[in-house]
Amino acid sequence: MKNPRRHLLKSLGAALFLPALALAQPGAAPVKLAMIEGFSGGNANGGESVFRNLVWAVERVNERGGVKLAQGRRPLQLVRYDSKGQIEEALAALRSAIDDGARIILQGNSSAVAAALIEAINKHNEREPAQRVLFLNYSAVDPILTNEKCSFWHFRFDAHADMRMAALMSVLQADTGVKSAYLLGQDYSFGHAVLREARRQLAAQRPDVRIVGDELHPLMRIKDFAPYATKIKASGADAVITGNFSNDLTLLVKAAREVGFDGKFYTFYGNALGAPAAIGEAGLGRVIAVADWLPNVATPQSEAFYKAFRQRYPRPEDDYVHMRLQLMIEALAQALEKAGATDPIAVAAQLERSAVTFSSQTGTMRASDHQFQQPLVVGVMDRQGTPGVKFDVEGSGYGFRVIKTVPAAQAEMPTTCRMARPA
């Protein structure tokens, strides 16, 4: 018996390529993109925000006729599979996606899930060469995924955690008001990587900063962060460094505000998904976030890009925009067209040397480890309408003013990848 929820989601995915049918080759099968993500569970809002971005990117490709292959034009079709944020569910979704004919897998909102998918895809592609698949990762940022666990079949389009931490540290290095820091993270591979790199980079760049707390907590299971916030305040920390996201960040900053913590937050994801509204006035000048792009990047192309996204998704709560997701889909479309086919090896060969520009943002894929190289920006939270904050976040009245731009060449870091390539 068919799963009605899965049937509904597949029908939704099918609708995403209808505008291209008139331009595509008659009877041309769509190029299926299987998005395996947590659409339920603790990070469901993160999954939905990525989905909106991918829908918009796929629509744009299809509106211009899909991708031009040797046998004619074919539309892209985005199909979503709910992993519930769990590894076993994600692996089951991978099997379903392959059975459904998908050869491009998209995932990102968990490094633990990404690591499991890489391992499963490596094994599958070796056993089933006629059904090989590629894995495009948009936000699983554990550095190991493009180092020790690097794979020919895996491409990461987000800056990894060490790159993001280096960008944050370039700001903290000059922040003389920070004399002590509390490190707090989620107890899984990504959280461990963030705290490990925070310790290393603090020792190298700000050895005068005392680490007054170093703590991990269960992922997406804490409902009351008051005990953690109380410890942070009692430690005398001037700043919290955290890679927390979604509810684990929102609830943390709410609790910190309630206990009266007035230090800074150096974050990976403090710029959206409810965090600015939760922090409120207490975050002004105190919450710092790193990203590949922020809405207040002051270029005409960037502003036009953001306004177009807000026109597509007018609800204030839907405005978490990921520039890298647009670059990822553009890079994929470019690789498909240059390969002239959907064969994963041919597409991978093109994708690993892709260079794309969209709305003044440029990125290139590094072939040695399949780590995307792009500029990074660091922003500080402020009121909408203050200089540098034209756009707010999610209708909160607060936005992020860009205080540091890190060019791609400066953001790049060495890799230990020893990639095994197919014969």
Q: What do these coordinates show?
A:
This protein has 423 residues and is an alpha/beta fold. It has two domains: 4-159 and 304-373, 3-Layer(aba) Sandwich (Rossmann fold), CATH 3.40.50.2300; 162-291 and 375-411, Response regulator (Rossmann fold), CATH 3.40.50. It is built from 13 helices and 17 strands. It has a seven-stranded mixed beta sheet with strand order 9-8-10-11-12-16-17, with helices on both faces. It has a five-stranded parallel beta sheet with strand order 4-1-5-6-7, with helices on both faces. Helix 4 links the parallel strand 5 (104-107) and strand 6 (134-137).
Search tags:
7-stranded mixed beta sheet; Rossmann fold; 2 domains; 17 strands; 423 residues; 13 helices; 5-stranded parallel beta sheet; disordered N terminus; alpha/beta
Q: What order do the helices and strands come in, and which of them pair?
A:
Layout: H1 4-15, E1 31-37, H2 44-63, E2 67-69, E3 72-74, E4 76-82, H3 87-99, E5 104-107, H4 111-127, E6 134-137, E7 154-156, H5 161-172, E8 180-186, H6 189-205, E9 210-217, H7 226-235, E10 239-242, H8 247-259, E11 264-267, H9 275-279, E12 287-291, H10 300-312, H11 323-339, H12 344-351, E13 355-358, E14 361-366, E15 371-373, E16 376-383, E17 398-406, H13 408-411
Parallel strand pairs: 1-4, 1-5, 5-6, 6-7, 8-9, 8-10, 10-11, 11-12
Antiparallel strand pairs: 2-3, 12-16, 13-14, 14-15, 16-17
Helix pairs in contact: 2-11, 3-4, 5-6, 7-8, 11-12
